[in-house]
Design a protein that fits this description.
The protein is of the alpha+beta class. Helix content is 26%, strand content 32%. The chain has eleven helices and 20 strands. The strands form four sheets. It has a six-stranded mixed β-sheet. A six-stranded antiparallel β-barrel has the order 15-18-17-16-19-20. Strand 12 and strand 13 form a beta hairpin. It is globular and about 70 Å long.
Length: 426
Protein backbone atom coordinates (compact mmCIF):
# COMPACT_ATOMS: atom_id res chain seq x y z
CA UNK A 1 0.00 0.00 0.00
CA UNK A 2 1.04 3.64 -0.31
CA UNK A 3 0.41 6.86 1.58
CA UNK A 4 -2.45 7.48 -0.87
CA UNK A 5 -4.69 4.38 -0.78
CA UNK A 6 -4.84 2.50 -4.06
CA UNK A 7 -7.22 3.85 -6.67
CA UNK A 8 -9.04 1.68 -9.17
CA UNK A 9 -12.10 1.70 -11.37
CA UNK A 10 -14.97 1.57 -8.86
CA UNK A 11 -17.29 -0.58 -10.99
CA UNK A 12 -14.61 -3.19 -11.67
CA UNK A 13 -13.54 -3.11 -8.03
CA UNK A 14 -17.09 -3.79 -6.89
CA UNK A 15 -17.18 -6.91 -9.05
CA UNK A 16 -13.83 -8.24 -7.78
CA UNK A 17 -13.95 -7.30 -4.12
CA UNK A 18 -16.29 -7.14 -1.22
CA UNK A 19 -16.65 -3.41 -0.63
CA UNK A 20 -16.95 -2.01 2.89
CA UNK A 21 -18.90 1.23 2.66
CA UNK A 22 -19.18 3.53 5.62
CA UNK A 23 -22.65 4.09 7.11
CA UNK A 24 -21.65 7.76 7.46
CA UNK A 25 -21.27 8.63 3.77
CA UNK A 26 -24.67 10.30 3.45
CA UNK A 27 -24.16 12.30 6.62
CA UNK A 28 -20.80 13.57 5.43
CA UNK A 29 -22.32 14.52 2.07
CA UNK A 30 -25.12 16.38 3.91
CA UNK A 31 -22.50 18.27 5.95
CA UNK A 32 -20.73 19.37 2.77
CA UNK A 33 -24.01 20.44 1.17
CA UNK A 34 -25.10 22.47 4.20
CA UNK A 35 -21.68 24.10 4.46
CA UNK A 36 -21.88 25.11 0.81
CA UNK A 37 -25.35 26.58 1.31
CA UNK A 38 -24.07 28.71 4.21
CA UNK A 39 -21.06 29.84 2.17
CA UNK A 40 -23.25 30.80 -0.79
CA UNK A 41 -25.56 32.74 1.50
CA UNK A 42 -22.58 34.62 2.93
CA UNK A 43 -21.25 35.38 -0.58
CA UNK A 44 -24.68 36.63 -1.62
CA UNK A 45 -24.85 38.96 1.36
CA UNK A 46 -21.36 40.31 0.75
CA UNK A 47 -21.07 40.37 -3.04
CA UNK A 48 -24.55 39.89 -4.41
CA UNK A 49 -26.62 36.95 -5.75
CA UNK A 50 -24.73 36.80 -9.06
CA UNK A 51 -21.44 36.04 -7.31
CA UNK A 52 -23.19 33.47 -5.12
CA UNK A 53 -24.52 31.62 -8.18
CA UNK A 54 -20.97 31.28 -9.53
CA UNK A 55 -19.77 29.48 -6.39
CA UNK A 56 -19.06 25.81 -7.13
CA UNK A 57 -20.38 23.20 -4.69
CA UNK A 58 -17.85 20.83 -3.19
CA UNK A 59 -18.45 17.09 -3.26
CA UNK A 60 -17.09 14.34 -1.06
CA UNK A 61 -14.26 12.40 -2.62
CA UNK A 62 -13.85 8.72 -1.76
CA UNK A 63 -10.81 6.47 -2.10
CA UNK A 64 -10.64 2.67 -2.07
CA UNK A 65 -8.23 1.34 0.54
CA UNK A 66 -6.83 -2.14 0.20
CA UNK A 67 -4.15 -4.35 -1.30
CA UNK A 68 -6.09 -4.86 -4.55
CA UNK A 69 -6.21 -8.65 -4.34
CA UNK A 70 -9.37 -10.49 -5.31
CA UNK A 71 -10.06 -11.94 -1.88
CA UNK A 72 -9.45 -8.70 0.06
CA UNK A 73 -12.00 -6.32 1.50
CA UNK A 74 -11.92 -2.98 -0.28
CA UNK A 75 -12.77 -0.15 2.09
CA UNK A 76 -14.16 3.13 0.88
CA UNK A 77 -12.62 5.91 2.93
CA UNK A 78 -13.12 9.65 2.71
CA UNK A 79 -10.37 11.44 0.78
CA UNK A 80 -11.79 14.91 1.42
CA UNK A 81 -15.05 16.61 2.27
CA UNK A 82 -14.34 19.96 0.65
CA UNK A 83 -11.15 22.03 0.75
CA UNK A 84 -8.30 19.99 2.24
CA UNK A 85 -6.89 23.21 3.70
CA UNK A 86 -9.97 23.62 5.92
CA UNK A 87 -9.73 20.02 7.08
CA UNK A 88 -6.04 20.37 7.91
CA UNK A 89 -6.81 23.59 9.79
CA UNK A 90 -9.39 21.70 11.86
CA UNK A 91 -6.75 19.15 12.87
CA UNK A 92 -4.27 21.86 13.80
CA UNK A 93 -6.59 24.39 15.49
CA UNK A 94 -10.02 22.85 15.98
CA UNK A 95 -11.39 19.31 15.95
CA UNK A 96 -11.55 17.11 12.90
CA UNK A 97 -13.53 13.85 12.80
CA UNK A 98 -12.01 11.14 10.63
CA UNK A 99 -14.29 8.24 9.71
CA UNK A 100 -11.74 5.40 10.02
CA UNK A 101 -13.75 2.94 7.94
CA UNK A 102 -10.56 0.99 7.19
CA UNK A 103 -10.00 -0.07 10.79
CA UNK A 104 -10.94 -3.49 12.17
CA UNK A 105 -11.84 -4.63 15.67
CA UNK A 106 -10.88 -7.65 17.75
CA UNK A 107 -12.62 -8.49 21.01
CA UNK A 108 -10.55 -10.54 23.47
CA UNK A 109 -12.66 -11.83 26.36
CA UNK A 110 -12.22 -14.27 29.24
CA UNK A 111 -10.67 -14.04 32.71
CA UNK A 112 -7.22 -15.05 31.42
CA UNK A 113 -7.15 -12.69 28.43
CA UNK A 114 -4.50 -10.38 29.90
CA UNK A 115 -2.07 -13.20 30.62
CA UNK A 116 -2.72 -14.68 27.18
CA UNK A 117 -2.11 -11.38 25.38
CA UNK A 118 1.01 -10.74 27.42
CA UNK A 119 2.44 -14.09 26.30
CA UNK A 120 1.56 -13.47 22.65
CA UNK A 121 2.21 -9.79 21.91
CA UNK A 122 5.38 -7.68 22.06
CA UNK A 123 4.31 -5.09 24.66
CA UNK A 124 4.27 -5.50 28.44
CA UNK A 125 0.57 -6.10 29.11
CA UNK A 126 0.49 -7.60 32.60
CA UNK A 127 -0.65 -4.18 33.92
CA UNK A 128 -3.29 -3.65 31.23
CA UNK A 129 -6.06 -3.06 33.75
CA UNK A 130 -9.42 -1.50 33.06
CA UNK A 131 -8.94 2.05 31.83
CA UNK A 132 -5.52 1.47 30.26
CA UNK A 133 -4.47 1.17 26.63
CA UNK A 134 -1.29 0.09 24.86
CA UNK A 135 0.20 -0.52 21.41
CA UNK A 136 1.78 -3.83 20.43
CA UNK A 137 2.85 -5.99 17.51
CA UNK A 138 1.57 -9.49 16.80
CA UNK A 139 4.51 -11.32 15.23
CA UNK A 140 4.91 -14.64 13.48
CA UNK A 141 7.58 -17.20 14.32
CA UNK A 142 10.05 -15.47 12.00
CA UNK A 143 9.68 -12.22 13.91
CA UNK A 144 7.80 -10.48 11.07
CA UNK A 145 4.80 -8.28 11.82
CA UNK A 146 1.40 -9.88 11.25
CA UNK A 147 -0.56 -7.03 12.87
CA UNK A 148 -0.06 -3.67 14.58
CA UNK A 149 -2.63 -3.32 17.37
CA UNK A 150 -3.95 -0.59 19.66
CA UNK A 151 -5.36 -2.35 22.73
CA UNK A 152 -7.86 -0.84 25.17
CA UNK A 153 -9.02 -2.72 28.28
CA UNK A 154 -12.61 -1.77 29.06
CA UNK A 155 -13.10 -4.10 32.05
CA UNK A 156 -15.14 -6.92 30.56
CA UNK A 157 -12.93 -7.41 27.48
CA UNK A 158 -9.92 -6.02 25.68
CA UNK A 159 -10.67 -4.23 22.42
CA UNK A 160 -7.98 -4.20 19.72
CA UNK A 161 -8.03 -1.72 16.85
CA UNK A 162 -5.99 -2.64 13.76
CA UNK A 163 -5.94 -2.42 9.97
CA UNK A 164 -9.06 -4.26 8.82
CA UNK A 165 -7.02 -6.31 6.35
CA UNK A 166 -5.17 -7.84 9.31
CA UNK A 167 -8.19 -8.49 11.51
CA UNK A 168 -9.48 -11.86 10.33
CA UNK A 169 -6.03 -13.46 10.04
CA UNK A 170 -4.94 -12.04 13.41
CA UNK A 171 -8.04 -13.39 15.16
CA UNK A 172 -7.52 -16.81 13.60
CA UNK A 173 -3.78 -17.04 14.29
CA UNK A 174 -4.08 -15.80 17.87
CA UNK A 175 -6.93 -18.24 18.44
CA UNK A 176 -4.75 -21.17 17.39
CA UNK A 177 -2.59 -20.58 20.48
CA UNK A 178 -5.51 -20.87 22.87
CA UNK A 179 -5.40 -24.28 24.57
CA UNK A 180 -6.90 -24.34 28.04
CA UNK A 181 -6.95 -20.60 28.75
CA UNK A 182 -10.18 -18.86 29.69
CA UNK A 183 -9.91 -16.51 26.73
CA UNK A 184 -11.49 -15.98 23.33
CA UNK A 185 -10.49 -13.87 20.33
CA UNK A 186 -13.25 -12.71 17.97
CA UNK A 187 -13.06 -10.59 14.82
CA UNK A 188 -15.85 -8.08 15.50
CA UNK A 189 -15.01 -5.69 12.67
CA UNK A 190 -18.45 -5.90 11.06
CA UNK A 191 -20.10 -4.78 14.31
CA UNK A 192 -17.95 -1.72 15.04
CA UNK A 193 -16.94 1.59 13.48
CA UNK A 194 -13.94 3.72 14.44
CA UNK A 195 -13.96 7.51 14.62
CA UNK A 196 -10.83 9.55 15.29
CA UNK A 197 -11.18 12.99 16.88
CA UNK A 198 -8.08 14.99 15.98
CA UNK A 199 -7.09 18.47 17.11
CA UNK A 200 -6.66 20.74 20.15
CA UNK A 201 -10.41 21.20 20.67
CA UNK A 202 -10.97 17.44 21.02
CA UNK A 203 -11.15 17.73 24.82
CA UNK A 204 -13.85 20.39 24.67
CA UNK A 205 -15.90 18.33 22.23
CA UNK A 206 -15.69 15.17 24.33
CA UNK A 207 -16.67 17.04 27.50
CA UNK A 208 -19.67 18.59 25.74
CA UNK A 209 -21.04 15.30 24.46
CA UNK A 210 -20.18 13.03 27.40
CA UNK A 211 -19.76 15.26 30.44
CA UNK A 212 -16.29 13.77 31.07
CA UNK A 213 -12.74 14.68 30.15
CA UNK A 214 -11.21 12.63 27.32
CA UNK A 215 -8.66 9.94 28.15
CA UNK A 216 -5.00 10.74 27.53
CA UNK A 217 -2.70 8.46 25.51
CA UNK A 218 -2.25 5.23 27.45
CA UNK A 219 -5.73 5.54 28.95
CA UNK A 220 -9.25 4.58 27.88
CA UNK A 221 -12.79 4.90 29.19
CA UNK A 222 -16.36 4.06 28.27
CA UNK A 223 -18.47 7.22 27.80
CA UNK A 224 -22.08 7.60 26.76
CA UNK A 225 -22.52 9.75 23.64
CA UNK A 226 -26.03 10.28 22.29
CA UNK A 227 -27.13 7.47 24.60
CA UNK A 228 -24.60 5.05 23.08
CA UNK A 229 -21.80 3.47 25.12
CA UNK A 230 -18.55 4.26 23.26
CA UNK A 231 -15.00 3.19 24.07
CA UNK A 232 -12.66 6.18 23.99
CA UNK A 233 -8.87 5.96 24.11
CA UNK A 234 -6.21 8.64 23.90
CA UNK A 235 -4.52 9.09 20.52
CA UNK A 236 -1.30 10.91 19.60
CA UNK A 237 -1.01 10.47 15.84
CA UNK A 238 -1.10 14.06 14.57
CA UNK A 239 0.98 15.96 17.12
CA UNK A 240 -1.95 17.29 19.15
CA UNK A 241 -4.79 15.99 21.27
CA UNK A 242 -6.68 13.07 19.82
CA UNK A 243 -9.18 10.40 20.80
CA UNK A 244 -10.17 7.13 19.14
CA UNK A 245 -13.87 6.32 19.52
CA UNK A 246 -15.08 2.75 19.01
CA UNK A 247 -18.81 2.75 18.27
CA UNK A 248 -21.35 0.02 17.50
CA UNK A 249 -21.74 0.25 13.72
CA UNK A 250 -25.54 0.19 14.02
CA UNK A 251 -25.60 3.42 16.09
CA UNK A 252 -22.60 5.32 14.73
CA UNK A 253 -24.88 7.82 12.94
CA UNK A 254 -26.32 9.15 16.19
CA UNK A 255 -22.85 9.45 17.72
CA UNK A 256 -21.55 11.26 14.62
CA UNK A 257 -24.46 13.73 14.71
CA UNK A 258 -23.83 14.51 18.38
CA UNK A 259 -20.11 15.09 17.82
CA UNK A 260 -20.71 17.43 14.86
CA UNK A 261 -23.35 19.38 16.81
CA UNK A 262 -20.84 19.86 19.61
CA UNK A 263 -18.91 22.21 17.34
CA UNK A 264 -21.77 24.69 17.34
CA UNK A 265 -22.60 27.15 14.59
CA UNK A 266 -18.94 28.21 14.36
CA UNK A 267 -18.07 24.97 12.59
CA UNK A 268 -15.27 24.10 15.00
CA UNK A 269 -15.92 20.41 14.39
CA UNK A 270 -15.80 19.13 10.82
CA UNK A 271 -15.26 15.89 8.90
CA UNK A 272 -11.70 15.37 7.70
CA UNK A 273 -10.48 12.90 5.11
CA UNK A 274 -7.40 10.84 4.41
CA UNK A 275 -5.59 13.65 2.56
CA UNK A 276 -5.62 16.06 5.52
CA UNK A 277 -4.96 13.30 8.06
CA UNK A 278 -2.06 12.05 5.98
CA UNK A 279 -0.38 15.47 6.01
CA UNK A 280 -0.75 15.81 9.77
CA UNK A 281 0.40 12.31 10.66
CA UNK A 282 3.51 12.50 8.42
CA UNK A 283 4.48 15.86 9.90
CA UNK A 284 4.03 14.38 13.35
CA UNK A 285 6.11 11.25 12.73
CA UNK A 286 3.39 8.58 12.70
CA UNK A 287 4.11 5.70 10.29
CA UNK A 288 1.28 3.30 9.50
CA UNK A 289 1.15 -0.47 9.10
CA UNK A 290 0.45 -1.51 5.50
CA UNK A 291 1.59 1.94 4.36
CA UNK A 292 5.10 2.65 5.70
CA UNK A 293 5.92 -0.85 6.97
CA UNK A 294 4.17 -4.17 6.69
CA UNK A 295 4.20 -7.96 7.03
CA UNK A 296 7.68 -8.26 5.52
CA UNK A 297 9.23 -6.01 8.17
CA UNK A 298 10.83 -6.68 11.54
CA UNK A 299 9.96 -4.44 14.52
CA UNK A 300 13.45 -2.89 14.47
CA UNK A 301 12.81 -1.56 10.96
CA UNK A 302 9.60 0.35 11.73
CA UNK A 303 10.71 3.45 13.62
CA UNK A 304 8.19 2.67 16.40
CA UNK A 305 10.10 -0.17 18.10
CA UNK A 306 10.21 1.42 21.57
CA UNK A 307 6.49 2.22 21.45
CA UNK A 308 5.50 -1.40 20.76
CA UNK A 309 8.15 -3.75 22.18
CA UNK A 310 9.24 -4.57 25.73
CA UNK A 311 12.74 -5.96 26.28
CA UNK A 312 12.16 -6.79 29.97
CA UNK A 313 9.12 -9.08 29.75
CA UNK A 314 9.04 -12.84 29.25
CA UNK A 315 8.75 -14.79 26.03
CA UNK A 316 6.29 -14.10 23.22
CA UNK A 317 5.99 -15.38 19.68
CA UNK A 318 8.92 -14.10 17.60
CA UNK A 319 10.78 -12.89 20.68
CA UNK A 320 14.01 -14.74 19.87
CA UNK A 321 14.30 -12.93 16.54
CA UNK A 322 13.62 -9.55 18.17
CA UNK A 323 16.15 -10.22 20.97
CA UNK A 324 18.79 -11.35 18.48
CA UNK A 325 18.29 -8.21 16.41
CA UNK A 326 18.59 -6.06 19.53
CA UNK A 327 21.85 -7.72 20.50
CA UNK A 328 23.26 -7.40 16.97
CA UNK A 329 22.59 -3.68 17.10
CA UNK A 330 20.96 -2.94 13.75
CA UNK A 331 18.61 -4.36 11.09
CA UNK A 332 19.35 -4.30 7.36
CA UNK A 333 16.96 -1.39 6.77
CA UNK A 334 15.14 1.28 8.77
CA UNK A 335 12.28 3.72 8.31
CA UNK A 336 13.58 7.30 8.39
CA UNK A 337 12.39 10.82 7.73
CA UNK A 338 13.60 12.76 4.71
CA UNK A 339 13.73 16.54 4.32
CA UNK A 340 13.73 17.25 0.60
CA UNK A 341 15.71 20.14 -0.91
CA UNK A 342 13.69 22.32 -3.26
CA UNK A 343 9.98 22.07 -4.02
CA UNK A 344 9.69 18.75 -5.91
CA UNK A 345 7.68 16.15 -4.01
CA UNK A 346 8.63 12.45 -4.29
CA UNK A 347 5.69 10.06 -4.31
CA UNK A 348 5.36 6.72 -2.56
CA UNK A 349 7.57 4.20 -4.33
CA UNK A 350 10.14 6.74 -5.49
CA UNK A 351 13.65 5.32 -5.35
CA UNK A 352 16.26 6.67 -2.95
CA UNK A 353 19.97 6.60 -3.83
CA UNK A 354 23.18 7.05 -1.91
CA UNK A 355 25.76 9.69 -2.84
CA UNK A 356 29.26 8.37 -3.40
CA UNK A 357 32.23 10.49 -4.51
CA UNK A 358 29.84 13.40 -5.13
CA UNK A 359 27.84 11.30 -7.61
CA UNK A 360 24.72 9.14 -7.50
CA UNK A 361 25.36 5.76 -5.93
CA UNK A 362 23.21 2.62 -5.90
CA UNK A 363 19.53 2.49 -4.94
CA UNK A 364 19.33 2.04 -1.17
CA UNK A 365 15.59 2.27 -0.53
CA UNK A 366 12.27 3.83 -1.40
CA UNK A 367 9.79 6.47 -0.25
CA UNK A 368 6.75 5.15 1.62
CA UNK A 369 4.84 8.40 2.34
CA UNK A 370 5.30 12.07 1.47
CA UNK A 371 3.64 15.46 1.81
CA UNK A 372 4.27 19.18 1.54
CA UNK A 373 4.44 20.28 5.20
CA UNK A 374 2.39 23.37 6.09
CA UNK A 375 4.22 23.51 9.42
CA UNK A 376 7.50 23.89 7.49
CA UNK A 377 6.35 26.45 4.94
CA UNK A 378 5.12 23.78 2.46
CA UNK A 379 8.57 22.17 2.30
CA UNK A 380 8.37 18.56 1.02
CA UNK A 381 9.01 15.83 3.60
CA UNK A 382 8.78 12.05 3.41
CA UNK A 383 9.22 8.72 5.13
CA UNK A 384 11.51 6.22 3.42
CA UNK A 385 12.69 2.69 4.12
CA UNK A 386 16.47 2.76 3.51
CA UNK A 387 19.45 0.53 4.21
CA UNK A 388 20.71 1.06 7.75
CA UNK A 389 24.18 2.07 6.56
CA UNK A 390 22.56 5.23 5.13
CA UNK A 391 20.00 5.87 7.91
CA UNK A 392 22.04 8.11 10.20
CA UNK A 393 20.41 11.50 10.84
CA UNK A 394 22.13 14.14 8.71
CA UNK A 395 23.09 11.81 5.85
CA UNK A 396 22.56 13.33 2.40
CA UNK A 397 20.81 11.14 -0.19
CA UNK A 398 19.20 11.54 -3.61
CA UNK A 399 15.53 10.84 -4.28
CA UNK A 400 13.51 10.69 -7.48
CA UNK A 401 10.94 13.49 -7.52
CA UNK A 402 8.70 14.88 -10.27
CA UNK A 403 10.80 13.65 -13.18
CA UNK A 404 14.14 14.63 -11.70
CA UNK A 405 16.23 14.08 -8.61
CA UNK A 406 16.46 16.09 -5.41
CA UNK A 407 18.85 15.99 -2.52
CA UNK A 408 17.32 14.80 0.74
CA UNK A 409 18.63 14.82 4.30
CA UNK A 410 17.87 11.97 6.69
CA UNK A 411 15.90 13.28 9.68
CA UNK A 412 13.92 11.91 12.64
CA UNK A 413 10.45 10.71 11.70
CA UNK A 414 8.85 13.64 13.45
CA UNK A 415 9.40 16.83 11.50
CA UNK A 416 8.34 19.35 14.15
CA UNK A 417 8.02 19.42 17.95
CA UNK A 418 10.02 17.58 20.59
CA UNK A 419 11.50 14.29 19.43
CA UNK A 420 12.97 11.19 20.95
CA UNK A 421 15.65 9.02 19.36
CA UNK A 422 13.04 7.38 17.13
CA UNK A 423 11.38 10.58 16.09
CA UNK A 424 8.22 10.52 18.20
CA UNK A 425 7.39 12.82 21.09
CA UNK A 426 9.75 12.64 23.99
Amino acid sequence: MSDRPIESDSAAATERHRVRRSPLQERIADFVGEEFARRREAISAARGPTAAKEAVAAEIDLLPYGPGTEDAIECEILASAGPVELEYAAIRSGCGIFDANHRGTLLIAGDERRDFLNRMLTAELKDLEAGRSAEAFWLNRKGRIDADLRLAERGDAAVAELDIHSASAAAESLGRFLVAEDAEVVDASEDHQHLWLLGPRTGTVVERVSGSAPPLPGRCAVHSIAGVDCLLSGLDWTGSAGVSVVVPRSTVGAVWDELVRAGGSGGQVRPVGWLAFNVARIESGTPLFNVDFGPDNLPHETGVLRDRVSFTKGCYLGQEVVARMESLGQPKQMLVGLRIDGEALPVAGSQVFSIEDHAMGPCIGGVTSSTPSPMLGAAPVAFAMVKTAHARVGTTLLVNAEGGQSKATVAPLRFFGATSSEGKSA
